[in-house]
Amino acid sequence: MSTKSASFDELDRKIVAALIENGRASFAEIGSAVGLSPTAVKRRVDRLRENNVITGFSATVRPAALGWLTEAYVEVYCDSAAPPRRLAEVVRNHPEIAAAMTVTGGADALLHVRATDVEHFEEVLERIRTEPFIRKTISYMVLSHLLPDSPEAGARRPSDRTDVPAPGRPADRPRSVPHPQTRAANQR
């Protein structure tokens, strides 16, 4: 991993945007979209990876497809100023924690938890609370995603969407997002 300063021009921005849109796009497809040869795109992607601009590639998976139907955000309050590295050790021990961060405000940390059901979530919460330095937690269950195309919602690429509003539906009226079980059943 390089620590040198990375130059980042408009072509790099377009390449990164193309990879964010479709991480499996070939260098030829990206090159066609941005006006470069596949070889030039590869050189730029290699440089962006070397300079730690692109840190990896991953698949976005609908959590419901894996049976993770319950989702919550948990504020964590510590007895004393627990160092972030100690909090990081704790969250690594819980595979149900999808994301964790230290935050400003009253809470010391915020956890994004996914579980199979409410009982599973409760069991995860109890495990988290057994840590000696955790004073209290406050949980917020997710009812629906207002931005269903976001990675946090386990979105697929826009072309794969099954919840597009019907033609003629007013744009300012919120569309309903089907329950994950219903969505999974509709895709069989």
Could you characterize the architecture of this molecule?
This protein has 188 residues and is an alpha+beta fold. Helix content is 32%, strand content 16%. It is built from six helices and four strands; from the N terminus they run H-H-H-E-H-E-E-H-E-H. Strands 2-3-1-4 form a four-stranded antiparallel sheet, with helices on one face. A hairpin with a 6-residue loop joins strand 2 and strand 3. Helix 1 crosses helix 2 and helix 2 packs across helix 3. The longest helix is centred in the N-terminal third of the chain and has 13 residues. It is elongated and about 55 Å long. The termini are far apart.
In brief, what are we looking at here?
Helices cover 32% and strands 16% of the residues.
Relevant terms:
32% helix; alpha+beta; disordered C terminus; four-stranded antiparallel sheet; single chain; 6 helices; 188 residues
Give the termini separation.
43 Å
The run of helices and strands is HHHEHEEHEH
**Oligomeric description of these chains:** single chain
Specify the number of helices: 6
Please give the structural blueprint.
Elements: H1 10-21, H2 27-34, H3 38-50, E1 70-78, H4 84-92, E2 97-102, E3 109-115, H5 118-129, E4 134-141, H6 180-186
Antiparallel strand pairs: 1-3, 1-4, 2-3
